Amino acid sequence: KVGWYNAILQPAFHLPYPDDTLAFVVLSTPSMFDKALKPFVNKERLKIIRDPVDQCVSHHLSRVKEKFPDQKVDVIFDYEILPSRKPKFLAQTAAHVAGAAYYYQRKDVKLDPWGKKKIYGVCIHPKYGGWFAIRGLLLFPDIQVLFLEQSAPVDCVSTEEKRIELLEQFNFHWQDGHYRDIIEVKERYSEEQKAYFATPPAERFRLLGLTQEAQ
């Protein structure tokens, strides 16, 4: 419910819908790269002008909307921002309240070792660890779910030591990706996918076999 999300945020970040409005958080799993992105790039090769992943996600969520011709469906993507430069929605908070992934933050550590350092939180999925992404929000403004019960996300990094390790790794060594394996995972990114996301965005076209003209 939109109300679960709005209840824990400042008004500036509230979604402008009634509390009982139905919303879905959309995650991409490790297999997205092979099952969705590569086929999309091969098919839409000449139409890719921005970011292939963003366009792929947009394409698939447009297809979801088409499945509900009688419903109003609003889509907010993870990369969209407001004129104020704030994100249109806080993806990790949304994933947490939807029960999709646990958003570990500084407040989840009792004996905080970081002093005045800025420490960012990170979502961990019980199956994929940090090998996933939050891609968007699907909202159904005309569907009110008064009796929907909230499911808590799985607290899979349950010890103080592991939480400190997770936040340390994410904040100070995120490039090496070790934070993603803070728990035992069922699936992770392929080597090809790791290379893709480790490459600066402007150079990723080449990895997908896209020409300069396609850019």
UniProtKB/TrEMBL annotation:
EC number: 1.16.1.6, 2.5.1.151
Cofactor: FMN; FAD
Molecular function as annotated in GO: cobalamin binding; cyanocobalamin reductase (cyanide-eliminating) (NADP+) activity; demethylase activity; FAD binding
Compartments, record wording: Cytoplasm
Catalytic activity: 2 cob(II)alamin-[cyanocobalamin reductase] + 2 hydrogen cyanide + NADP(+) = 2 cyanocob(III)alamin + 2 apo-[cyanocobalamin reductase] + NADPH + H(+); apo-[alkylcobalamin reductase] + an R-cob(III)alamin + glutathione = cob(I)alamin-[alkylcobalamin reductase] + an S-substituted glutathione + H(+); apo-[alkylcobalamin reductase] + adenosylcob(III)alamin + glutathione = S-adenosylglutathione + cob(I)alamin-[alkylcobalamin reductase] + H(+); apo-[alkylcobalamin reductase] + methylcob(III)alamin + glutathione = S-methyl glutathione + cob(I)alamin-[alkylcobalamin reductase] + H(+)
Keywords, sorted A to Z: Cobalamin, Cobalt, Cytoplasm, FAD, Flavoprotein, FMN, NADP, Oxidoreductase
Signal sequence residues: none
One cellular component term from this protein's GO annotations in UniProt: cytoplasm
InterPro entries in the cross-refs: MMACHC
GO biological process, one term: cobalamin metabolic process
Main subcellular location of this protein, as a coarse class: cytoplasm
Pfam families, per the entry: MMACHC (PF16690)
Family statement: Belongs to the MMACHC family.
Protein name (record): Cyanocobalamin reductase / alkylcobalamin dealkylase
Organism: Pelecanoides urinatrix (Common diving petrel)
Lineage: Eukaryota, Metazoa, Chordata, Craniata, Vertebrata
Gene: Mmachc
